[in-house]
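Ticket #4471: structure export looks truncated?
Reporter: QA, pipeline team
Priority: medium

Steps to reproduce: submit the single chain below to the structure queue and open the exported record.
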Amino acid sequence: MAMAAERELEQTVVEAWPAAEHAPLGGWLLRASGGPTHRGNSVAALQASGDSPLDVRIEQAEAWYRQRALPPMFQVGPCSEPRELDAALAARGYRETGAAWLATAPVSRVLERSANGLRTQLALSPAGDWLQVSSSASRFASTSDVLLGFLERLGARCRFATAYDERAQPLAIGLGVLSQRHLGVYAMLSVPEHRRRGAARAVLRALAESAQQESKAELYLLVDAKNVAARALYAGCGFEDRYGYHYRVLDRAGH
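Actual output as written to the record:
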């Protein structure tokens, strides 16, 4: 039962970050988007079908990425198929990178733990302040068109949260992505000079309130395994780790 729940969550996450270009390959989904996103530029290996040997399928994926001038990259986690994928990639010279956790929390628990006096705004489209913070301080700052592409493909599923100080200065932003049963928390970002003021907590509360209004009982998010501060914030707001995953990337030109 636990693995079924993890598969449902991971499929939800795949659908919540639709790549600019994608193609099926024996049950896998090849994704390419450009920019800094690992998820949008990697293979989602949630199923394995067909008779092709694993090495042949990996070679086909490598060719697809090289045609797009991207390094071949795979997302590997507890739901990846086949089970020997991680070892096979390591044997081919793929290095491990981007270790992260998927964490979940009941909406009710986040609301209980994120009480905050800061003003927040929730919008159905990325207003000026949200875009300003994202374009100036996020990892997409130099490739804002890539982020805008994801937002355009997500369309009406997006909820944009911004926290403000008493002078109406934006302090932090976050993106909520609706799915059938969840609201995913993405693009969390605090303005560097305004950190440690509770703004990220306020954004989480705004997104939890939105989820409650949309009749979603659970939030999920993805967090870098090395980001101690973010993981502590999320744990304090009621999130619990569900499973870890990482990526395998082939840096050199050929096998």
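Status: closed, not a bug. The export was complete when the record was re-opened. Leaving a note from the reviewer for reference: The longest helix spans residues 2-16.
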